[in-house]
UniProtKB/TrEMBL annotation:
UniProt GO cellular component terms: mitochondrial small ribosomal subunit
Keywords in alphabetical order: Mitochondrion, Ribonucleoprotein, Ribosomal protein, Transit peptide
Name of the featured protein: Small ribosomal subunit protein uS15m
GO biological process terms held by the UniProt record: mitochondrial translation
Protein's UniProt keywords contain Ribosomal protein: yes
Gene (name only): Mrps15
SMART domains named in the record: Ribosomal_S15 (SM01387)
InterPro entries assigned: Ribosomal_uS15, uS15_NS1_RNA-bd_sf, uS15_ribosomal
Amino acid sequence: HPACSPALQAARGYARPVTRKRKEIPSQLDDLPPTMLKKDYANLPIMNSVDDVVKRLLSLEMASQKEKMKVKIQQLVEKVRRSPSDNGSFEVQGKLKTGRILIRMLEEHLHRHPKDKNNKRQMLMDVDRRKKLLSYLRRVRYDTFENTCKQLGIQYSLPPAYRRRVTKRWLVKKAFCIKVFQEAQKLKAPEKLKQRREWQARARAAREQKE
């Protein structure tokens, strides 16, 4: 092959895609110590007398991501629990704690795969569901709402005020609806007047009977 000219070499170098190294974001499961036991084996009394090899096999070092998520959810439950025996409150039983973990995992996945539209849609749905749950908790128990947001690290922002864009089409439609409503009220006026007179006559007859 003949040697390329310097201009062609520069053009080829310019057209070559530049690979940018993405900044790795820390995973929410990195703070779990590898020596911690799995959720199903943590409270067993027999674990104090087993061999170190067995403990290592049953620890988070050999655990899957699903098993690590169970431990993380249990930690979040301990943070928002009202009492040691609380298992039925809204913040414990609801999907606030699970939603935070799933949203964070989807964020990490989308950071590595930004073109995954299906998971992006799922993450937006989870965020919207969590906002509804927080809005309900804010209306019902504001002190619990503040404590839940603080413990789970959730930043809640009030929804913006609804504003309709005034267009010519919307003004024409509104005027037409008002006109239709007024015409309907005119058609119903004789019937309403008749009902009112019947009610007044019944009330007058009832008063005369009492007298």
